Amino acid sequence: MKHETITVPPRADEGGEEIDLLKLFIPLWRKKWSIITLTVLVMMLSALVALKLTPIYSAISTLLIERRTSKTLSIEEIYGLEASSSEYLHTQFELLKSRGLAERVV
User: Fold this and answer.
1) E strand or H helix at 44, and its extent?
2) H-assigned helices in 53-98
3) pTM for the whole thing?
4) Residue 16, SS3?
5) In degrees rounded to 5, what are phi and psi of residue 55?
6) pLDDT for 6-59, tens place per residue?
7) What does the CA dihedral 38, 42, 45, 46 come to, rounded to 10 degrees?
């Protein structure tokens, strides 16, 4: 039986080459004013665009409409005629959708 030897190349961080951070930092330091100027310009442009936008507000709500309960019974309640109930709820719903109410609320 034959034995084969496998050689693994050394990793870069195992004593071979080291990364010189100073060599990476010097070009950035030389261009610092360009980097700062570009950053400030982008920030000012972003702020200008954000301030010029018209704010849009939206909201979602759920509303429960309940009839007032009376302590006395009417003829309709005795005979089970509840047609006024659906009309009442429909009227309340239409009032809530009205533009006049929305303008008073906002």
Assistant:
1) helix 32-52
2) 75-79, 83-97
3) 0.39
4) coil
5) -70, 140
6) 665 555 555 557 888 888 899 999 999 999 999 999 999 999 999 999 988 888
7) -170
